[in-house]
Amino acid sequence: MRSSRAKTGRRVAAVPAERHHPPSVFGIKLVLLLALLATALACGALPLRRRGGETAGSRLLEWGNAFAAGVFLGAGFVHMLPDANAAWEQLGWHYPIGMLLAAAAIIVMLLFEHVLPPEHAHHAMHAPSADRFGALGAHEHVGSPRAVYAILTALSIHSLFEGLALGAQRELRSALVIFAAILAHKSIEGFALGVSLARRAVPGARAAAPLALFAAATPFGIVAGAAVGAFQGRIGLACEAAFLSLAAGTFAYVATLDILREEFHEPGGRLAKWLWVVAGAGVMALLALWV
Length: 291
Fold this sequence. Notes:
The chain has 10 helices and no strands. With 291 residues, the protein is mainly α. The protein has one domain (21-287). Helix 1 (23-45) runs antiparallel to helix 8, helix 2 (58-90) runs antiparallel to helix 9 (233-263) and helix 6 (145-168) packs parallel to helix 8. It is globular. The N and C termini lie close together (10 Å).
C-alpha cells in the first residue's frame, strides 16, 4: 500500500487490474492467526491458574498496557490511516472518507462500551487496571456474570475490527505492523478477561467458553478480511480501505478512551506510564521509515 502514496500533481493513479495476494502472504497470515489465537488463550488462562493469590507484576502489566496504547496510536495514525487515505484517493475519492469511517468506528465503540451496557457492567469494563489486576480472589461487583460478558463483548468487537484490517492487508510488511500492534494489546486484553473470570471463581470448564469466544474473534476477523480482500480491482481495494479506516478508528478509541483513560485515572506512576506510551508510539513511528 505504501507505493500508492506516490502521486504526480493532483492526478489519481488508476486501480491496478490485478492485485493478488502472493501465496506466501496467505501462509504467513495463517501463522499470525495461530499466534494470536494461542496468545489470547494463554494470557486468558493464566489468571485462572492463580486463583486466590496476588497477581505478580501488576506494575509491569500497567506499563505493558501503556506501551500497547502507544503502539496502537502509532499504528493507527502513522501506518493505517495514511494507507487508507491513499487507497481512497486511488479510487478517486476526494472526500476524506477514511477520516469519516475512523470517526464512525469511534462513535460505534462509544455506543457499545458507554451507552448500551448496564451501569455495573460499564463500571467493570472501565475499572482501572489496579482493580482488574489486583487480588484474584476478591469478590467484587466487577466479577458479576453480566459484567464479565459485557467485557467479553467489548473486547471481541475490538478484536473483530482489528482482525478485519489484518486479513485484508495485501502487503506483508503492513500486515506485520498491524499484527505487532494487535499482539501487544491482545495479551493484556486476554489477561483482563481471565481476571474477571477468576474473580467470579468460574470453573475451568465454564471459563473455556468465553475465553474461546474472545480468542476466536481476531482469527475470525482475519479470515473474513482475507476473504473480502481477495476481490480484485476496485471492490477489493475499497474493502481494504474501509477495513483500514475502521480499524484505525478502533485503534485510536482503544488507546485513548479505553487504555489511557483507565491507566491515568489512578495517581502514582503516571510519568512512567507516559514514557511507555511515548516508547510504543515511537517504535511505530520508526517502523514507518522502512515499512
